[in-house]
Specification:
Elements: H1 2-24, E1 27-41, E2 64-73, E3 78-83, H2 98-107, E4 118-123, E5 135-141, H3 153-209
Length: 210
């Protein structure tokens, strides 16, 4: 039972970590921009998945106008991106050019009869039930629907560094446990075994006397 609880705990922890990185790290989609628009948003229970107001504006207002970029993927699926500054907040993309990005996306709009494809770099998820959208970071024109998305060097380097740090901590923890904790636990177990043996011996001799 304890083993099942332990496995459930660690699986849950690693799933949360994986979800965090999948949401935060940048991804690239090859899409066709169909429209750009601005909409008044009143963040509610999904407030966590919206960025703050644009840098330099009043961030205390509950509702605000947010830019959106409507697209179609190569397979025909619709994908809608929000376009918000991240500023100095999290995730640390230091994005301050929301208006410029909206203008670039609007200039790259195309119809199905004469498509122009773009690569949109973004982070986040799209979920219709929670009404959350990935946040566009950059947009650039590409040659066609089969254009390369590029090698995600940032993701590779960052995940490699994190894996190295986690491995280093794990190795040092094992050494510390082997050198300090395991001997202490073994000594306590030996003392308890000796005490239990002494009690058993005393109880046996007491019964013989009776």
């Amino acid at each position: 039972m304890l083993g099942l609880i332990r496995w459930t705990f660690w699986i849950t922890v690693w799933l949360i970590i994986a979800a965090f990185f999948h949401y935060t790290l940048p991804q690239v989609d090859i899409v066709r921009v169909t429209d750009t628009y601005e909409k008044r948003i009143d963040p509610g229970e999904n407030r966590l998945f919206w960025a703050k107001a644009d840098v330099g504006t009043d961030g205390t207002i509950a509702n605000r106008d947010v830019f959106f970029i409507q697209t179609r993927r190569v397979g025909g699926d619709v994908m809608v991106y929000r376009n918000e500054d991240t500023g100095w907040g999290w995730p640390p993309y230091f994005k301050f050019d929301t208006s410029n990005l909206q203008a670039e996306a609007g200039d790259l709009k195309s119809a199905e009869a004469n498509p122009r494809y773009v690569a949109i770099k973004h982070y986040g998820w799209r979920n219709e039930f929670l009404t959350i959208f990935p946040n566009a970071i950059s947009v650039r024109a590409v040659d066609g629907p089969d254009a390369s998305k590029g090698i995600p060097w940032l993701n590779i380097i960052l995940l490699t560094l994190i894996a190295a740090v986690v491995y280093g901590i794990w190795v040092r923890w094992r050494r510390f446990r082997k050198a300090r904790i395991d001997p202490t636990v073994e000594a306590i177990e030996d003392d308890l075994a000796e005490a239990s043996g002494a009690v058993t011996s005393w109880f046996g001799s007491w019964r013989k006397k009776k």
